[in-house]
């Protein structure tokens, strides 16, 4: 399932890379890509939202929202 994690203070490329690497260490995450300009992280996983939120919080960021990613084709 594709998810979007909206975070606070994803202020630079290094912060984005840190968040990506932290998520990719989780079993069950097959992909992660952060966009620091938009303060969002795209994740492909079957893990529950609570596990993703705990991982991002542990990396030093505040999670604002986790939602399902909807593409242009549904």
TrEMBL record:
<protein>
    <submittedName>
        <fullName>Heavy-metal-associated domain-containing protein</fullName>
    </submittedName>
</protein>
<dbReference type="InterPro" id="IPR006121">
    <property type="entry name" value="HMA_dom"/>
</dbReference>
<dbReference type="GO" id="GO:0046872">
    <property type="term" value="F:metal ion binding"/>
</dbReference>
<dbReference type="Pfam" id="PF00403">
    <property type="entry name" value="HMA"/>
</dbReference>
<feature type="domain" description="HMA">
    <location>
        <begin position="1"/>
        <end position="64"/>
    </location>
</feature>
<dbReference type="InterPro" id="IPR036163">
    <property type="entry name" value="HMA_dom_sf"/>
</dbReference>
């Amino acid at each position: 399932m594709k998810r979007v994690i909206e975070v606070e203070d994803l202020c630079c490329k290094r912060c984005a890379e840190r968040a990506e690497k932290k998520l990719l260490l989780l079993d069950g995450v097959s992909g992660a890509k952060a966009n620091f300009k938009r303060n969002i992280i795209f994740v492909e996983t079957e893990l529950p939202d609570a596990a993703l939120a705990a991982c991002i919080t542990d990396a030093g960021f505040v999670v604002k929202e986790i939602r399902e990613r909807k593409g242009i084709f549904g």
